[in-house]
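sry for the spam today, last one i promise. C-alpha cells for design, 117 residues
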C-alpha cells in the first residue's frame, strides 16, 4: 500500500497544534485564539481522513477542500498568535513551515483531482 503523505503530515501537524494549544493555555493563559487554532488545526487531519473514505470523486474533492480551508484558517490564527507575542519566532517558523507544506499538498491534490474528473 502506498504511503499517504498528506495524511501523515496532517496528523503530525495536528499533534503540534495540540501541543501548542496546551502551551498557550498552561503557560500563556491564552484561551480564545488558541481554541480557534485547535478547532481549525485538528479539522485539517479529520477531513483528510474523511476524504480517504469518500463516496465519490466529488466527495473526495469536497472533503479535501474543507481541509484546505481549515489549513488557511489555521495559518491566520498562527500568524495572529505570533504578531500578538503569544508564540516565539522559532515556534512560528516551525509550525508555519509544516503548514505551508500541507497547504501545497492539499492544493496539488485538489487540482489534480479536478483535472482527472
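last one done:
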Amino acid at each position: 500500500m502506498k504511503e499517504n503523505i498528506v495524511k501523515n503530515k496532517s496528523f503530525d501537524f495536528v499533534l503540534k497544534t495540540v501541543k501548542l494549544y496546551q502551551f498557550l493555555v498552561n503557560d500563556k493563559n491564552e484561551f480564545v485564539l488558541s481554541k480557534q487554532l485547535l478547532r481549525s488545526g485538528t479539522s485539517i487531519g479529520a477531513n483528510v481522513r474523511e476524504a480517504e473514505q469518500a463516496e465519490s470523486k466529488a466527495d473526495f474533492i469536497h472533503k479535501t477542500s474543507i481541509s484546505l480551508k481549515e489549513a488557511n484558517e489555521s495559518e491566520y490564527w498562527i500568524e495572529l498568535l505570533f504578531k500578538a507575542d503569544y508564540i516565539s519566532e522559532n515556534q512560528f517558523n516551525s509550525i508555519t513551515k509544516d503548514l505551508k507544506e500541507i497547504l501545497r499538498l492539499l492544493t496539488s491534490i485538489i487540482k489534480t483531482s479536478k483535472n482527472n474528473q
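The chain has a mean pLDDT of 97. ok im logging off now
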